[in-house]
Specification:
By secondary structure, this protein is α+β, with helices and mostly antiparallel strands. It is built from 23 helices and 21 strands. The longest helix has 30 residues, at 16-45. It is globular and about 75 Å long. 49% of the residues are buried.
Amino acid sequence: MPTFQFIQREPCQQSKLNHDHHHHQNRNHNKIYNSIKLGLFGTLTTILLTGCQPDPDLSKVATEVKATEVDALGFTPASEHTIAANQALRSRLPFDDVQDFEDAKRGFIASMPELKVVDDTGKVIWDRTAYDFIEGEAPASVNPSLWRQASLNNIDGLFEVTQGVYQLRGFDLANMTAIVGDSGWIIVDPLTTAETAKTALNFLNQTLGERPVSAIVFTHSHMDHFGGALGLFEQAPDEGIDIIAPAGFMHEATSENVMAGTAMSRRAMYMYGKQLPRNSRGHIDSGLGKEPAFGEFGILSPNVVVEHDSAMEIDGVPFEFQIVSGSEAPAEFTFYLPEQQAYCGAELVSKNMHNLYTLRGAKVRDALVWSRAIDDALNAQRDTKVYFGSHHWPIWGQAEVNEFLQKQRDTYKYIHDQSVRMLNAGLTPAEIAEQIQMPPSLSNTFASRGYYGTVKHNAKAVYQAYLGWYDANPVNLDPLPATASAVKYVELMGGADKIITAANKAVATGEYRWAAELVNHLVVAEPEHKQAKALLASIYDQLGYQAESAPWRDVYLSAAYELRHGSPEVGIDLASMKQILLQSPVENFMQSMASRVIGPEVFGEEFILNINFTDLDKNYVLELKNSVLHHKLAPKSANANATLNISHELFVDLIIGKAGVKEVLFSDELEIEGSKLDLVSFFSSLDKPKGVFNIVTP
């Protein structure tokens, strides 16, 4: 995650006499303000899981690069070993099966001449045209199976799924579905940002005729399916509009990734290739779609909560809901439209293998729960004529839909069962990942290929779910940290020159995984060794070019990029998160502060702070004792060292940097009681994570 920079505004312009009179007082106020702001700001960085935009210059790097030359960013050509590996994969898969392409184009109505979304300031929010280079046969630097998936995800526009059901695809990472209701559009999953949702809705109305939004359905609690909700309306939605979501949606949507958000955000930059150019040696796809949009995020609180499998009518359209929470998302449902005989699989199923473990980092998902939920959908005895989902393209025909569901179900259950079988035989996660083989009936099915999740890292997720991080070998119980170990390995192997020689021999035979392991020791031990970093970067190039998984490709190529150009410096626009943060439980911020207390700096210290939200009529008492910070919703403590009286919105504005010194110091919405010195001391004891930690170097 990039660094965040605060820009302190100048205080109000006053006469020189007043300025001289209040200079010392304002300086103290500024110190208090900055201390509070930095403390609260660090809290937010543990909440966000939104990657940063790619550097605008990188996205414009020329896509036409000679296959035998190093490009402007240092990415090397595909080696003969990479070309051979990709050709071998192509020969094993049924590339002559073009049914997916027919399905992805079926029902096409119209597309925008240039699908590019910008905000009011001209900032690019979404640029589908950045991927126009994806056409024809796969270049040498892209796995041909991934290229096929990226080509399918390039097919954008407005499509008719079945009578009264339409999809807008290619306007964001996910799809937006529009169902014709009695009085307007029932919108399912309004994308990631207000800007992309508004663009999609406007295009829908321009093409099919103007209709109001009569209801919104959130299938699950991931932001690419609800973050654009506010873009559906010019003003706040009418109270009569039904907003339907699964039980637990609001909690999960506003609370996900609170504790480890800083680390997740940094890792997500690798997973989604945020710094990479959009060309054949960079980011080409995310597996689920092109990439997440980045603009104004929002959320609407549901007024209809689906707690269990049930049926209801929404704007005259019958819906049958199936709760599948705990599978792909902690709060999720699918639904069936009996009149249209159409099944919406949300993200329970999709046209690729999903993640049991996501590379950005998260708690592992339960493969058995996931598989059983798909089995329940399959056994519901519905006369389904068409499937459509939150990503990708539909499938028509009951037999075809059933086969798809069966193979999705069996993909996750096979990985689970075989991983459990092998862990019970004593195999370690790495050994299981190396040995597990998918049956041909699944491995030759493109919808079960690892474009997003992979067999290898999903198998490791199953191990982690049952046995955790320890593989039972005592050498891994308390190993040396990476740097200390690397220094000793380099010394043992005879120094840098011998390591580079050995690595080059491995590269010459195409043993890139082993070569990376060798050179990584040297880079970790000597992070300024330019030759080692360049060699490791070129090795990661080849591993990325061979990867069938879009996140694996982006991880390898992001590592290569940072070895050549360093870690990111550009920060996230926190203001884009304001609407989400206003809906987030205040407890999230309190617990996040506790996780940032720098323990050794407060050994022996005790402190009590009241944070009183004046507009919410809620007071939180924070108590530091035994170097642990606890909080509780309670009346103001009379024993508090200090009390911070603040409005909820100003609290959020402070966090996102929208409120400056002038607004705060002269605001009626903030008041400090008690010891200002203690307050400054408290906030100074909180870690301020920048989220730009190194990954491929120490």
